[in-house]
């Protein structure tokens, strides 16, 4: 822990400030997300209930916007990280993000369609500034080699899920009684709490997230210079041309949305290549490569995991026997299982790894992440069982879903908080926030992949999709474990000899 940081339960107090800020932010994010699709498809005519009128879109239109929204909200983390690294530091970026989020959720209280789009746009910008940078700040609370960092991230992750659990439990009830816009408004009020909490806790965050003025011009982050290099040699020009063609293909064969997405992704790919070239030691170069490879795991993980809100949600609704006694468990409650399991098991999983590490047994982040993919993948075995039962008897038991979500959560705990921590260990300091942004963008791409896979269930059937994900994830996780040794070598001992640093 950095010098002069006050502690509580063996962790810097700053961690709890960030925990609470992120808890409220995630409440507003997941609360709004929970009602977004429902609001878009709700009728434009006033019904008998208190919810008020919706937008009257088809479910296809609503899901399309939802897919782009849940992707953009994380992809925008890349510019969010860049702004922090280059201009204002993480602490201010989180502050501005929180303010923009309050505005965004506030605008959504209005019923006009312009307010709807403006609100969503502001939420995307706000999350982009806040989410990656608050995560990097957690890492900034610890010195290199401090074994408490992983545990700190697990605690932080509990905050995330506490927010999401409360949101899924409360926002639906508010909407049912007071209408859609009260639900959006609640998300806004909660975000104001997050902002107040962050401002009030500044004295515990004095040493983290500051934008440092560099003394050596070599240490200055200059994206312009990096991009300039794309044109400074024939080899680079060829690369640039390939990138432009890739974006064009996206636009030509799909639509302008994909074209823009490809353009953005290829621009980022080019930036990462140029950063790699510029890194001045082989150690940093190797670590950079490991980080990028680990992002492949991240895309695959979320691509499978995020079936939760889509295909598995629909499966729960239409094919699962949800009766307990005379009561039917509402579909939406299954969405709370993940967050609930995280809160129950996060410290146990983190404690398990810490104990193994202290005993000197294999517990590298890369191993945990690969294992996380496999464990999560096994969750789909229960979905396969569910489909088999449904095909035999016309309905399937809830227990399969509970088991699937349990395995998904255990897998998530092996991968997600671990990956956050891993990035703060490996990323070159001056690009720390950018790399966190790339991590979230990878999970955003995973969200999009999840949507595409989920949609294809109408062509291939659920059995094929669930079984396919099971096999694919277990094989990929297994492959990563096979190449673990060389990968670990490339980290150059970034995780060796971790111990408690006072
Ligand atoms: N549930 C996590 C969160 O909201 C997952 C985010 C992600 O990486 N996509 O922070």
UniProtKB/TrEMBL annotation:
Membrane topology: Multi-pass membrane protein
Transmembrane segments: 27-46, 66-84, 93-117, 123-142, 154-176, 182-200, 237-254, 260-276, 288-305, 332-354, 366-387, 399-422, 434-453, 465-484
InterPro entries: Dipep/tripep_permease, MFS_dom, MFS_trans_sf, MFS_Transporters, POT_fam, PTR2_symporter_CS
Official protein name in the record: MFS transporter
Entry keyword Transmembrane: yes
Major localization class: membrane
Organism: Pseudotamlana carrageenivorans
Major facilitator superfamily (MFS) profile domain residues: 17-489
GO CC terms in record: plasma membrane
Pfam families for this protein: PTR2 (PF00854)
Lineage: Bacteria, Pseudomonadati, Bacteroidota, Flavobacteriia, Flavobacteriales
Compartments (UniProt record): Cell membrane; Membrane
GO biological process, one term: oligopeptide transport
Example GO molecular function: peptide transmembrane transporter activity
